[in-house]
Sequence to fold (294 residues):
Amino acid sequence: MVRRLKASGHENLLLRSREELDLTEQSQVRRFFEAERPDVVLMAAARVGGIYANNAQPAQFIRDNLLVQDNVIDCAYRNGVTKLVFLGSSCIYPKLAPQPIKEEYLLTGPLEPTNEWYAIAKIAGIKMCQAFRREFGFKAISLMPTNLYGPGDNFDLQSSHVLPALIRRVHEAKIRAEATVTVWGTGTPRREFLHVDDLADAILHLLYAYDDEPIVNVGWGEDVTIRELAELIVSVADYEGHLIFDSSKPDGSPRKLLDTSRLAGLGWHPKISLAQGIKSTYEWFKTHSAEARL
Ligand code: GDP
Fold:
């Protein structure tokens, strides 16, 4: 977001690191909004993680996300923010939703158990935005991005999502001349991936082009199996070993491809293909491994 905003000439950004401003602490959030009086809030802050972290830390995922979004949305409204963009996730939809997933499938069935704690918090955030719009006329919109990846991602093998995890595993196996790389699960689940620079562009577009209650999916429009993703990474990294699938690890949702027709109707389309995005992310990882979150 910061890269995208600066590239389009936005200089007056109010940025705070987690160390400077703990969004789970209401008093700190209140003081920040009263002192700085931001005009617009882009709400990407959250406790996020892949299938292992979500499953292993249910309390932290539901607690931190409820607190962060409660504090920010309420303080933004009370301090005159003119527009707030809340980011959710494709995991808010029912585990077995028809595919591609339309926005209206929200709350039509049970969630995927490995990430329901995070999903429930994000659903509460969406409802909070909608309720503040209805009762107070607060201009909050909610966007649901699909699985994201790109430079600056979390490459920690326990807490990351699949794409950065496999980039790291394959790269390290190549460097160490190991014969195999282990991929969690059966390799058959399907996932859709969107580059973060595309998401940042979509957020900026919708900030100006959209102001209504319904949520909007932000996705690429096509998905791949985890096996296809792993093979793509193997080919980009030019790794000569083999993939092994560890079916003792959870698969999670069988598929979560977003229907992006509402987004297309609002005039936005993604540009960075998965092959192109993996190439540039792999280059970033190789040259920034000192500062990458490992
Ligand atoms: P999800 O989309 O919420 O399920 O989150 P993930 O990105 O963590 O996982 C997506 C799929 O990739 C699941 O089926 C995982 O089992 C699979 N997967 C394969 N290898 C890995 C890995 O090394 N890390 C993670 N996080 N997932 C992996």
Residues 50-52, 91, 115, 147, 160-162, 165-166, 183-185, 189, 191, 226, 249-253 surround guanosine-5'-diphosphate (CB under 6 Å). The mean pLDDT is 96.
